[in-house]
């Protein structure tokens, strides 16, 4: 995948597909971490409801400061989404390049076959006219 203008190969597409799978896996891990943080927050709320002293609140604040905040996780999720979108657009571009190359070669082959078909029809027509001329000279009725 050194030449960005070259058609994509199956290996290139497999590499991109592998990268996509890895990004999807990372995104699922981030979503799992977000769910875990939500669960931890709910647990902390319940604990605070049971006993809420100033020292307990300070300890909770320190624990939350150590963990990623919801906004950090959302920013990470947005970043991963942008990366995934860019990768998908790159894959789309590579696929379009590959199909364009395929269409050009198919069009050339079709053009060659049309020319060959026309030449064969001319030859058959010439042979038929010669046979008709021979039958006319021999005064034979044409075969049905």
Describe this structure in words.
- By secondary structure, the protein is mainly α.
- It is built from three helices and no strands.
- Helix 1 runs antiparallel to helix 3.
- The longest helix has about 70 residues.
- The protein is rod-shaped and about 125 Å long.
- The mean pLDDT is about 80.
Give the gist of this structure:
The protein is mostly helical. It has helices spanning 10-50, 54-66, 70-138. The protein has a domain at 10-104.
Low-confidence stretches: none
- % residues in beta strands: under 5%
Number of H- or I-type helical stretches:
3
| Separation, N- and C-terminal Cα atoms | 63 Å
Which structural class do you get from the secondary structure elements? mainly alpha
Give the SSE map.
Layout: H1 10-50, H2 54-66, H3 70-138
Helix pairs in contact: 1-3
Relevant terms:
144 residues, mainly alpha, 85% helix
